[in-house]
Amino acid sequence: MKKQLIRFLILIFALAPFFARAGGDEVVIVYNKKMPGSKEVADYYAKMRNVPSKQIYGFNLTTNEEISRSGFHDSLQLPLLRKLESDGLWKFFKTVIPATNGQPERVQRHVIASKIRYAGLCYGVPLRIANDPGIQEAGAANWPFQLRRNEAAVDSELTLLPVAEMNVALTGPFGNPFYGTTNAAVLNPTNGILLVSRLDGPSAEIAKGLVDKSLQAERDGLWGRAYFDTRGIPASESNYFIGDKMLLGAAEISKMLGYETIVDEKPGTFPISFPMSQIAFYAGWYDEEYSGPFKWPKVEFMPGAFAYHLHSFSAATIRSPTNRWVGPLLAKGATCTMGTVDEPSLLFTPDVAMFFSRWAVGQFTFAEAAWSAQLTLSWQTTVVGDPLYRPFGQLPEQLHERFLRENNPLIEWSFLRIVNATALRGTTAPQLIESLQSLPQRTNSAVLTEKLAELCDAAGKPSSAIDFYEKALQLNPSPQQKIRIHSTLADKFAAQGDKKKTYDQLWKIIDENPDYPVKFDILKRLLDLAVAIGDKDEITRCVQAIQKYPPTGD
Prior knowledge:
- This protein is of the alpha/beta class.
- The chain has three domains: 1-18 and 394-477, Alpha Horseshoe (Serine Threonine Protein Phosphatase 5, Tetratricopeptide repeat), CATH 1.25.40; 24-220 and 315-384, no CATH class; 478-554, Alpha Horseshoe (Serine Threonine Protein Phosphatase 5, Tetratricopeptide repeat), CATH 1.25.40.
- Helices cover 40% and strands 14% of the residues.
- It has helices spanning 2-14, 38-49, 69-86, 154-158, 204-220, 238-256, 326-331, 352-361, 366-372, 396-406, 411-423, 429-437, 446-458, 462-473, 479-495, 499-512, 519-533, 536-548; strands at residues 27-32, 56-59, 66-67, 90-97, 106-114, 118-122, 128-129, 152-153, 174-175, 195-199, 225-229, 260-264, 279-284, 301-309, 337-340, 376-377, 381-384.
- The strands form six sheets. A four-stranded parallel sheet has the order 2-1-6-10, with helices on both faces.
- Strand 11, helix 6 (238-256) and strand 12 form a beta-alpha-beta unit.
- Helix 2 (38-49) runs parallel beside helix 5 (204-220) and helix 14 (462-473) runs antiparallel to helix 15.
- Mean pLDDT is 92; it is low at 8-19.
């Protein structure tokens, strides 16, 4: 069966064109001469990605996250354009526009030959361009009032650098002609777009870590679980259903690829008690500040993980590890993310379903996928991560066979994806149970043994499910996975009416996780069980514990 399942995953990737790996010679790196650590990040990235030293540019920029419109033009936009031209990386074509209707003759230029496609903005380069009320442009009044502004994310504004001398309007968003493209090659400065991404975050060390984790995932693949947090909005509410639709579309792609995919369709976001283990992908909405499982001291991001929370101000700052979303996600271990620096309008936020389809199936680089999933340019989106990052460049069979030869622990995730993918083809739970039970790698894998327990439960074999859940606990599960299994077992024993075993499982969550954020709720349940069991010592134990922890769980 194994070969049949692997062929299914290969077929998925074969449906998309295979692109040659992008090289460091296609990248220019931009750093802030005034920001400590900025050049360090630039040099590190150049070393790790083999970017030619002549393609590293430093500019004297403000150290604030916000830069004025004139400051952006004079100290970054125009100097970068001139350097690209003088260093022979860009060649321009000049068009003379004759004088008409009282307008003087003017010259416009655009890129007709380019040796680079990407720009990496390093830690310390300003994040957003402030609105300039003094800019008055013809046609600005045609925009709805909420879009009649000229502030923008620096990243998004720089995507139009190839046509910056073509009199592009600054007011409102600029329609992205490459939205949804399936051909990554068209994303080229000669067609009017520069692929801009940041090596950034709350610190220079975090910024440097983004490339390390990207390279690791490119070598070994991106593994783990996928979590999508929708709001359960009815399709009839078209204005807001767009957000859910994008997330649900991404979740379907994740399932198709065989990832263990969890979709929450409740109005609220994932609660802090939710055991979010081994995260490969996270996408959700709509909290203003980072919340839920991301409040834990340690978040289980897998190497290469993508995490994104849709909120109008998710990237209002990215240098803070505790404010908004982008900075905290990076500080907690995410490898790449996106966000908006100011109100974008929901329609003009990144289309995460489009992003997933291009990145995970189409084998685009991170920057290619990010900008092909953006309906507008010159607007509010910032893209944070190694622009060349491409974790899906190897076929699943290649990785699987290599892991088998190396006895690599990641083989458990490859088998899990195979099981999930083949289930989509109609393979029954009993067939999958039989295959997993006979799989040698399963006996040492908490991941596969937990999956076997879930399959037994789905097949109406509760006793077998409990047995395999208990075995999974003995196979070194991750901390969050362990919480999930204990909680599941507590529910299973409760359903059987076994109060003592339910009690024991819940206490293990408390004992093994002294910083568990909702201890009080579990302790109340434990007290009720202790009373029902009639164990005076345990009643005392629960009462003392409840008195120790206030209801907030702090």
